[in-house]
Write a structure and sequence with these properties.
Blueprint: H1 2-37, H2 53-60, E1 66-72, H3 79-91, E2 95-101, H4 106-112, E3 119-124, E4 129-133, E5 139-143, E6 149-154, H5 156-168, E7 174-179, H6 188-199, E8 204-209, E9 221-225, H7 233-244, E10 248-252, H8 260-270, E11 272-274, E12 278-281, E13 287-288, E14 295-296, E15 299-300, H9 307-312, E16 318-319, E17 326-328, E18 334-341, E19 346-349, H10 351-358, E20 367-368, E21 372-379, E22 389-394, H11 398-405, H12 413-424, E23 437-438, H13 449-480
Helix pairs in contact: 1-13
Length: 481
């Protein structure tokens, strides 16, 4: 009996020691492997720490050295930002990420005009170009209709990816934004939004006042965003001369204003008419309701510009009633493509009838059936036979500012705008803009220091103590035997 008790004691002590040794060894092994082979896993809901296929396409084509500076300080440093930038560094031998403490290096702040901690600078010495991504636009909180924050999105990957495209490009796209006719972008905050949107895609942006200025020959695109004042014959001629040289124009109508001069030009020269009406859909499945108003969810038609949205099932949206329908007449020499339309149950009505409808009064429908909303047209110009004149006409300037007015939905208006600008400028295979990444608080974020500390305490401290206590329990129990 005595020998049996001694045997139990030895077995219990041996089991306890074995468990402790095993836990320590496993920690050492996984720690070494993690450092050497980067075994960390991104288990965030939005894949925050995993580069998208679009970004991988950008970095895989690099042949110039890129330096990415992370401007921060000890108190504001974001582990999330640093790890995202670290993924860029690991993805290409041409990318180097350097962390700069702007508190101790004020010269860096002055040189790159850093305004906020946690901003990022992307620079290419070979081209002499740089881009600053200010922290104020990297992350945004999303608020639902009740005013409650229900998510946060991170744009860092998209901005850095676009900045890499810009600083390595010998000839980035030059977009001219028109002014002088009461455009929506005469609102400074809306202009900032649009310029940041284009800027974030690696494009350059300038302003042109068509009432006084000519359209520069370096313009890859003229963008007219929701004018409220009509164009004179002289101003229309500037645009027509630009198109006849092989230029490209995107025109986004402001549905609240009828502009007979510019509309007559489109009809006579491009066989496309912007109707002074309000578009809706009788099928409620194409209407999205919200506290800020109803949205019309149009049909995205097949085209090279829209195929990426159709492939992933992403919708776009415009304001119901604040969208004009567009009609195109077939004409020799002009190729017309309908990009966006309503369903077959779409309707159009006069603005007066739209008001009556909203007031629950009797109203009339002007036209039923599919209503075209956005068209892309192309024709051979008179003066430049080596290219084609390209025109995009949309019945809603809301498409340009969808995320400015309401960032809570995952709609693709901005992506379609960017894709159409690239496509019309001859960059048909340009990467689709990288989507924002959801930062879901309920999911673990890799390399979150607090999370790592908890794991270390569990693995090195709590679990061994539990096993040790269990070993003592076994030892005492067997000792009593």
């Amino acid at each position: 009996m005595k020998n049996r008790k001694i045997k139990f004691r030895l077995e219990g002590a041996a089991l306890t020691a074995l468990v402790i040794v095993a836990v320590i060894l496993l920690n050492l092994i996984f720690g070494i492997l993690g450092e050497r082979y980067d075994l960390k896993a991104d288990i965030t809901g939005g894949g925050v720490f995993t580069l998208s296929s679009e970004t991988k396409e950008v970095v895989s084509s690099l042949d110039k050295d890129i330096t990415v500076y992370y401007a921060t300080n000890a108190d504001s440093r974001s582990t999330r930002y640093r790890e995202i930038l670290g993924e860029f560094e690991k993805s290409s031998e041409f990318i180097t990420v350097t962390e700069v403490n702007v508190d101790t290096d004020p010269g860096f702040t002055r040189q790159y005009q850093i305004k906020n901690y946690n901003s990022v600078v992307v620079e290419c010495e070979a081209t002499g170009k740089k881009r600053v991504v200010d922290n104020s636009i990297i992350e945004q909180s999303l608020v639902n209709d009740n005013g409650i924050e229900n998510n946060k999105v991170n744009y860092l990957e998209g901005y850095v990816s676009a900045a890499i495209r810009y600083v390595t490009s010998d000839d980035p796209l030059m977009i001219y934004v028109a002014m002088g006719h009461g455009e929506a972008v005469e609102n400074p905050s809306m202009l900032d939004y649009l310029m940041n949107m284009l800027y974030a895609e690696g494009m350059s942006v300038k302003i042109v006042d068509l009432t006084t200025d000519e359209i520069s020959s370096d313009a890859d695109m003229l963008l007219i965003a929701g004018p409220t004042v009509d164009f004179t014959d002289a101003e229309i001629k500037k645009m027509d001369d630009y198109l006849e040289e092989g230029g490209r124009v995107q025109y986004y109508s402001n549905p609240s204003y009828e502009l007979p001069g510019i509309n007559a030009y489109f009809e006579q020269n491009w066989s496309v008419r912007i109707n002074n009406d309000c578009v809706s859909d009788k099928n409620s499945g194409y209407i999205a309701q919200s506290l800020s108003g109803n949205y019309l969810i149009p049909v995205i038609n097949e085209h090279s510009m829209t195929s990426f949205l159709r492939a992933v099932g992403t919708n776009i949206r415009v304001l119901e009633g604040d969208t004009n329908s567009i009609e195109v007449t077939e004409k020799e020499g002009i190729e017309a493509n309908v990009l966006v339309s309503t369903s077959e149950s779409g309707v159009s009505m006069t603005r007066e009838d739209w008001v009556r409808k909203n007031n629950r009064e009797n109203y009339s429908i002007s036209k039923e059936g599919k209503q075209d909303i956005t068209l892309y047209l192309r024709k051979n110009p008179l003066y430049n036979t080596e290219t084609s004149a390209r025109l995009l006409v949309s019945g809603s300037c809301y498409m340009l500012f969808d995320r400015y007015f309401d960032s809570t939905g995952g709609y693709g208006d901005k992506d379609l705008v960017i894709k159409s600008i690239n496509y019309m400028s001859g960059i048909e295979d340009a990467p689709v803009s990288v989507a924002s990444k959801n930062v879901i608080k309920e999911k673990m974020e890799i390399l979150d220091q607090n999370t790592l500390n908890v794991c270390i305490i569990l693995l090195v401290g709590v679990i061994p103590l539990i096993m040790f206590a269990y070993g003592i329990y076994v030892f005492v129990r067997r000792h009593r035997l």
